[in-house]
Amino acid sequence: MDRAADQLTLDRVQKFRTGQHMEAPDLAVVGRLCDHVADTGLEPTAYIAKCFDTHDIVFLGEFGRIAQAGRLLQELVPTLVDAGVWTLGVEWLLAEDQALIDRLLAAEDFDPTLAATLVFHWGMRHAAVFQEYVDVLEAAWHANQRLDSNAPAFKVLALDYDLDYSSVTDSADLLQPEAWPHLRSRGPAGRAMADRVHSELLSSRRRALISCSTTHALTHHRRAAHPDFDRIDVDVVNGRVLGLGNHVFGWRADRVTTVLLHQPLPGPAGYGADLVFAADGLLDLVFARPDGPKYPVGFDVSSGPFASLRCTTAHDEPLFGGWTNGYIFLDSVSDMLAPTPCFTPIDAEHIEEARRRVLPGALRSDDISVDVMRGAIETQATVAELVWRTVGI
In sequence order, what are the beta bridge partners of 209? Predict the structure, then answer.
C-alpha cells in the first residue's frame, strides 16, 4: 500500500465530489463500508476460490489492461488447480488457435515465441500485445507440469473468434462503426463467446474462471449503451449492451457470478468527466483512508453496505450490488501500472500480418514499419496507464 498515492486519491475524490456539488461523505456509512471489508474481505486469489463454492462460472471483469490484473491472473492459475477448477476462459485469445494453445500447454518445454504469437493474433487489433498475457500462458504450462499424471490437464479456453479482415479494404479504418457488421461475420462477439461457453463448459458442467472485459463479465446487469464508449464491437438491444455474461446468466442464472476488478465508470455523455469514480468515489475513499482496509482484497457487494451505494455521477447509474456480485480492489487509481509491451511477434516477417490485423486506418498502410508498429504497442500500454490519471477529471 502506497500512502502517498492514497493521499492523492483522497484529494482527487474530494475535488471530484466538490465539483459534482455533492455533500461531504457520511462518516457512519464510510465506517460501515470499512468494517465490511475488514470483516469479510479475503486475499484476491482466496476470494475467487471461495466463489466456486457456490458457482460453476465466475466472470472476472477488467476495465482496461493493467499490469496488476495480469499478475493476478498468473497467481490465480495454481489457485484454480488447487480448487479443482481446470479451465481458464479468456476473451484475449482466438478460438481458431485452440489446438495451438492446447499443444503449447502440453509441450515438454514452454515456447514463449508461440505464446506471444497467440496473444498477438487477438491483441494486435487494439495494438495490445502484452507480456502479462504471455506470462499467464506460461503459468498454465507450469501448472500442467506439476499435475499428477491422473489429473485432468489445465486448459486455457479461447473464447473470441477472428475478425473477417477479407471483407474490408486493406486501408479501411476499422474503428468506424460501419466496418463491424462485416468484420463480425459470425455475429456479435457476446453471443459467439456464449455459445462457446455453453458447448465447452455448461453442457458438461465444467467449472471455469473467465477473464474478460467488464462488458462481457456482467451477468444480471445490462448496462446502458454509451454513445462514445460503445461505438464499435458491441451488441446493443433496446439501448442496453448485451454481452457474454448476460447470455450465460440467461441460461444458468443460479450458477454464474460476476466479480469486477477495481475500475471507474463512464461519465455522462457530452459533459463532465469522461470517467468517474465508482460509487461516487466512496469506494476509493474507503481504501485511501489512513485507517482503511488493507488491499489488494476481494469481497462480496451483492449484500451488506456496498449493495445500496449509488453511482449517480455515471452514465449508467446502477446500485453497486446491482452491477456486480463481487469486487476486487487491486490498487489505488494513482498506482495502476501499464502492461508490458511484447514485441516478439512484431518483426519484418510478420509486419504484413500486423498491418492486416490492426484496427486504426493510419497503421494499416503498406509503408508502416516494424518500428512504428512497435511504437503503437508501446503507446497503447502507456495510454492504458494514463487513463487512470484522468478518472474524475
Answer: 58, 88
Residue 341, CB-side half-sphere exposure with 13 Å CA sphere: 18
The three grid cell numbers given for residue 116, joined into one nine-digit string: 506471444
- Name the grid cell of 195: 455459445
CATH code linked to domain 3-390: 3.40.50.11550
Inter-helix orientation angle 189-200/244-252, to 10°: 40
Where in the chain are the domains?
3-390
Q: Are 218 and 61 in contact (CB under 8 A)?
A: yes
Contacts 24+ apart (CB under 8 A), 319-325: 320/278, 320/279, 320/283, 322/220, 322/221, 323/218, 323/221, 323/223, 323/260, 324/61, 324/218, 324/221, 324/258, 324/259, 324/260, 325/219, 325/220, 325/257, 325/258, 325/259, 325/300, 325/301
Tens of pLDDT, residue by residue over 229-249, are: 999 999 999 999 999 999 999
Q: How would you list the strands of the sheet with 208-213, edge to edge?
A: 155-160, 87-94, 208-213, 57-62, 256-261, 326-329, 297-300
125 φ, ψ to 5°? -60, -35
What is the spatial distance between Cα 280 and Cα 214, in angstroms, rounded to a whole number? 18
pTM greater than 0.85 (yes/no): yes
Q: Can you tell me the distance from the alpha carbon of 117 to that of 124, in angstroms, rounded to the nearest whole number?
A: 10
pLDDT tens-digit series, residues 145-190: 999 888 999 999 999 999 999 999 988 999 999 999 999 999 999 9
Torsion sign, CA atoms 201, 205, 207, 213: positive
Within 10 angstroms of residue 351's Cβ, the number of other Cβ atoms is 18
Residue 70: which region, alpha, beta or left (left: phi > 0; alpha: psi -120 to 50)? alpha
Q: Which residues contact 34 (CB under 8 A, 6 or more apart)?
A: 286, 289, 291, 292, 293
Q: Is residue 386 scored above 70 in pLDDT?
A: yes
**∠ Cα 378 381 382 (to 5°):** 90
